[in-house]
Specification:
The chain is mainly alpha-helical. 58% of the residues lie in helices and 0% in strands. It starts with a helix and ends with a helix.
Length: 78
């Protein structure tokens, strides 16, 4: 399940084993989610799901739910 895999990625990137993702969560809700962490997060997501997120989409994700939905769309399109 995409949500479970994202949970593991977020916990690893942000070094927080207690982090619980929700679809409405944004960068403002996660300590340490800055531009560098965002790049690391996207890179980890791309590796985990064997996808490529287009550069023009990277800034369009307003929430974790937006990212999850895009991952699911890319996986179904493959």
């Amino acid at each position: 399940m995409v949500q479970d895999q994202l949970q593991l990625i977020f916990r690893e990137i942000f070094s927080d084993d207690d982090l619980v993702l929700t679809d409405t969560m944004t960068a403002a809700d996660v300590a340490g989610w800055d531009s560098l962490a965002h790049i690391n997060l996207i890179y980890a997501v791309e590796r985990q799901f064997s996808i490529q997120i287009a550069d023009d989409r990277l800034a369009s994700f307003a929430s974790v739910g937006d990212l999850r939905q895009h991952i699911e769309e890319l996986r179904h399109a493959a």
